[in-house]
Amino acid sequence: MGRMHTSDSTSEEALRTAWALLLDQADSIADTITLSLFERDHELWERIGPEFRADVRGSTRQHIHRGLRILSGTLEERHGEDENAVELWRETGRRRARQDVPLELVLNAYNLGARTLWEALVGRVSADPAIGVGDEVLLLAARSVWTTLDVQNTVLIDAYRRESSRMQRQDLQREQGILDHLIEGRGADPEFAEEARSALGIEADDAVACVAVIQDRGAVGDVLAPTEDRLDRLQIVARWHVRSGVHYGLLSGPLPGEDGLVDLFAPNVVGRTGIAMSTDGVAGFAAAFQFACRAAETVPRGVRQVVALSDRLPEVLLAGSPLVAPRLLAETLAPVMAQPRAQADVLLETLEALLRHDGSPTHAATDLYCHRNTVIYRMKQIEQMTGRSLTDPRDKMLLGLALMARHRG
Description:
single chain, alpha+beta, Globin-like, Alpha-Beta Plaits, Arc Repressor Mutant, subunit A, 3 domains, 18 helices
């Protein structure tokens, strides 16, 4: 390829003249690009649908027409926003983001367009040598088309990412708004429940559960990431939000049940955590949220532990009725707790052991490292002070609840 001896202005004029040769072929070049795109990723374009394919065809024609007018210098003859090429690229980036077209696919289309445009120019010049476009001009043409492509890609990528970020913020805000409405009880409305399932990607037969995390200090933040990874592997979807300082998540999908979820969260528990299954899918999420929070509240402050509602029902019952606990203690353990501290602690420890072994002095004695007769003596003291019998199922239940209430206090 020889060295150019023409001036810059002459070279630019020759370059614009060369590109102008393709103006009457703009539609056919655009259609060639479109067909190549559809053949290259046939399954994807078929899945996207005919309306979107028509949009791509029209958009490609618009891009090629405008690109050739820019390269040939004829764009300057027209004015107005409609002829703003940069805005066209920017709007294309925004639109493809809204259409959920992968960015890589969009950039591949632009690259294919640039190469096809260049090949069309070479083909036109080769077919008619009398045109007089030399190698020097073709070299300039190659540089111009790839320089324009770089600018296009820069504008488009920026617009695509900005629009994606905006859509993600909107989706997150909508998602969190739906979660707020669900825990307020709006899931009982069939129309809203259907809207929530659609927005959150929940199938009609998916199981639903709530996880409530109360972290006494600091923020939950990314510490849930390891658990999220385990949930993803099980195809369990988690939607997170914060309400009155409680981080909560709606879990949906093939859930393993409350105990299975406890096992998933236990290795990376970040605070007092409660888990409750919803007995009525999305419609029952408000109740599941309340139960998960109550279950979390049964864990002592400062302790990182995850518990299931099904394992904490008595404690949850007490937590839900704060006036019951003092009355329960007054009716049962108050005389024992009124004894000197050392004696009271021994009797209460013995009572816990007896209840743990269904009232058996022999098994309780093994736990307490003392003689069976000693346990029997203490048991009689407890029964005398409380007026309750450890052979009566109802009394045992009340004494067990009283011990739970005492620990909560």
